[in-house]
Amino acid sequence: QVQLQESGPGLVKPSQNLSLACTVSGGSISSGTYYWNWIRQPAGKGLEWIGRISSSGSTDYNPSLKSRVTISLDTSKNQFSLNLNSVTAAETALYYCARGGYTAGWFDPWGQGTLVTVSS
Amino acid sequence: SYELTQPPSVSVSPGQTASITCSGNKLGNKYVCWYRQKPGQSPVLVIYQDNKRPSGIPERFSGSNSGNTATLTIGGTQTMDEADYYCQAWDSNTVVFGGGTKLTVL
Question: A28 pLDDT exceeds 80?
């Protein structure tokens, strides 16, 4: 079955860029029937959707983050990536990638998550 | 912006039925999903499209959505069901999550 695995630096300095990758196994990221999403969760708090990308490369972003977020595809590596610039300490969180359905907008499965700490 | 409201906590005795609500303006006009998150684990989809169960999710999990309220119902609740539960919907091309409900089975 499809599995997702996040990777990237665990520590980012304030005002710098956060870059993460999500590697998909057990299925092709360019299959055309799914969206590929990033979601984050600060410790002890709820879930926040960051954005998504389709297999064709079209993107949608959370309006509150839109000016700072870029999500991209690398079909040669079967990966998609998150870039969030000018981060603050408040963005310390567990970052998840997840596959999303085209209709009804569900998320399944999710990666195990990667903790990103924003600190100097 | 659109908001989904969940009770912070719900308690239920083993074997009883647990109901977790999710409220939002005209929520019945949107599809609602539910996720279960156990401590230290990633969220797992338990209900999608209001009332559909993914494969591998027990039949005791069911969902409904009408008016301004969606409800996740867990029949014959077991201790293994103790977790945080989040509702989720789409509004204006953006995902909205509820704040989460901690289900305690005692």
Answer: yes
